[in-house]
């Protein structure tokens, strides 16, 4: 005979961005099960093309070189996040975190040199030390986006002493969504979930008229590379095209500052089994929809 035991799964699962919160769970419940992975959500700062300085690649590149990605993400998450330059590392075509970490701007060991190069770029565009740049950052007033915005503001003050980064918090996602969808911003700090295909994800974000191209970025050369990738059915050839896309993303386009791929951390009681069959990159919001794969373990 089998006993059916009702259970409120939502009360069994503790999910948190912050490692210290799950450490507290472990102290209270030493036998708790914990799972960590990189999910399909990625944090970013998106420049808006309605702000004239951002139409110059050199300005966009300078800011990318000046961001200290490691300090920004460690400050909020601690360990567990993953480097991402453009394509999410969970995709086959995506550059993996170890490769991204070697790129200019992302490499923490070359940050001083990268910021020196960034200042040369701004000086060449008429903004020495950032003078004349006021890239307001719009964000929803939640911990992640507020802290990322504040850390970005602090980093730019160090890298470009005369740049003025103004922060504009929105009370909720509804009020924030209106100007973002209209592209009426200088920059927005946000988090987005990858689509289920690398090329489709990049088309939605950066292709002229893309559904998520809120910054209104447009470059016919970028469009052409993605058109070619979309039409390519051979996986090896597609990989080569998307490698070209990721290279030129950093060297020619820089339509976005991708801050990281988010870590996902979950804790649950010790008598729950099978969760590892639901956890993984493309289950960013799916934990509680996959409970059919979980089971109880009798001790």
How many strand segments? 8
Largest sheet: 6 strands, mixed
Reading the helices and strands in chain order gives HEHEHHHHEHEHEHHHEEE
Tally of separate helices: 11
Helix content: 25-40%
Q: Report the uncertain regions.
A: 1-6
Return Rg in Å.
Answer: 21 Å
Q: Looking across the biggest beta sheet, what order are the strands in? A: 1-6-2-5-3-4
| Overall pLDDT score | 91
Class inferred from helices and paired strands: alpha/beta
- Measured distance between first and last alpha carbons: 18 Å
- Which range does the strand content fall in? 15-25%
Overall 3D form: globular
Q: How would you describe this protein?
A:
- Helices cover 39% and strands 16% of the residues.
- By secondary structure, the protein is an alpha/beta fold.
- The protein has a 6-stranded mixed beta sheet with strand order 1-6-2-5-3-4, with helices on both faces. A two-stranded antiparallel sheet has the order 7-8.
List the helices and strands and how they pair.
Layout: H1 9-12, E1 14-16, H2 19-28, E2 33-47, H3 57-66, H4 69-77, H5 97-100, H6 111-124, E3 137-140, H7 143-159, E4 167-170, H8 173-182, E5 187-193, H9 198-206, H10 220-231, H11 235-253, E6 257-268, E7 272-273, E8 295-296
Parallel strand pairs: 3-4, 3-5
Antiparallel strand pairs: 1-6, 2-5, 2-6, 7-8
Features:
single chain; 299 residues; alpha/beta; six-stranded mixed sheet; two-stranded antiparallel sheet; 11 helices
